[in-house]
Recover the amino acids of this structure.
């Protein structure tokens, strides 16, 4: 019997789906939410909100599987010697695509002018069509690429930036430090979907914010440290950036005295862009455990040296 330690909040969400997914994958499993005998555990399901920090006693564990996509809070844990996988969940990806598309369209169409119009102003100025609105994604992984494709389907001219070179039909791609300026040039909407690593912190700073088109919009559903908060506020105040929609922050919940809360050009969403969905994630977990049990390579392995 395979022993699985569900070391994360939200077991009630997984209970209707995970045992069935494991059974369908041919895994006979015992899932526990406490592990008084760590040496008996085969797999650990982990979330950053889990109290579990010391993985050393789990001497038999074949993998630690993060229920979150972002792994910055576990990747540097020295007690973790087991392979680490991260969550790539079709349900999470769908919700990120919806969040990004919705917020891009809000800004593209200038929806606020009509939704909040206390003066009953008859402003007949029509927005440009999507093909006239250049959009840039920083991060072209599972989420960035899915969102880029959705916006491409609406005719937005999309550029994407990643660490390694990519060739993606219909998408202008750039990579590495040298490609960042070209990726941001003329961008009217910038979406950050990068992991939080030492290389990506403050990637949007005074210099890079100045590379976008004047009056660009920033949408950050990636991670808070990707943005230099003070530089963003200065760019908003100076007009280089016209609005920022932020879902993630250096400290969460965002402290009440943070200047973002009161800033008229900032929209705050409370880390709700995309959540792992138990119904689809259970299939992913079961498939990965099946792979591990049959000696096949694990999906979505984290590269501990790269940090994502
Ligand atoms: P992936 O690992 O699939 O993609 C990461 C992308 O970032 C890749 O394209 C990668 O490049 C690029 N990248 C990483 N480091 C660099 C660098 N130094 N320079 C340039 N590009 C870099 O991650 P996902 O798309 O699945 O997720 C992205 C992030 O979204 C997560 O790490 C998490 O922080 C955040 N997230 C937020 C959620 C929310 O609710 N707000 C929900 C889920 C995730 P390459 O392709 O070359 O490797
Ligand atoms: C994640 C997140 O990384 O929810 O999965 O932010």
């Amino acid at each position: 019997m395979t022993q699985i330690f569900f070391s994360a909040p939200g077991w009630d969400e997984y209970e209707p789906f995970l045992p069935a997914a494991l059974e369908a994958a041919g895994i006979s499993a015992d899932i526990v939410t406490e592990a008084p005998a760590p040496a008996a555990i085969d797999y650990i399901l982990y979330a950053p909100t889990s109290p579990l920090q010391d993985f050393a006693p789990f001497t038999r564990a074949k993998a630690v599987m993060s229920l979150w996509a972002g792994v910055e809070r576990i990747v540097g844990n020295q007690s973790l010697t087991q392979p680490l996988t991260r969550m790539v969940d079709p349900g999470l990806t769908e919700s990120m695509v919806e969040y990004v598309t919705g917020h891009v369209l809000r800004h593209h169409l200038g929806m606020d002018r009509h939704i909040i119009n206390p003066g009953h102003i008859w402003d007949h100025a029509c927005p440009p069509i999507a093909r006239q609105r250049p959009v840039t994604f920083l991060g072209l992984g599972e989420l960035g690429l899915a969102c880029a494709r959705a916006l491409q389907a609406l005719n937005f001219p999309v550029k994407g930036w990643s660490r390694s070179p990519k060739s993606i039909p219909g998408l202008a791609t750039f990579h590495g430090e040298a490609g960042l300026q070209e990726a941001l040039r003329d961008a009217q909407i910038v979406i950050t979907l990068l992991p939080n690593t030492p290389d990506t912190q403050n990637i949007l700073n005074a210099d890079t914010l100045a590379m976008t088109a004047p009056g660009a919009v920033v949408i950050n559903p990636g991670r808070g440290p990707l943005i230099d908060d003070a530089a963003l506020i200065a760019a908003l105040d100076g007009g280089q950036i016209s609005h920022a929609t932020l879902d993630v922050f250096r400290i969460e919940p965002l402290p009440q005295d943070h200047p973002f809360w009161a800033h008229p050009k900032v929209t705050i969403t409370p880390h709700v862009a995309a959540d792992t969905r138990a119904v689809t994630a259970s299939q992913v977990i079961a498939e990965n455990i099946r792979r591990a049990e049959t000696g096949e390579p694990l999906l979505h392995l984290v590269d501990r040296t790269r940090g994502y």
Summary: The longest strand covers residues 2-7.
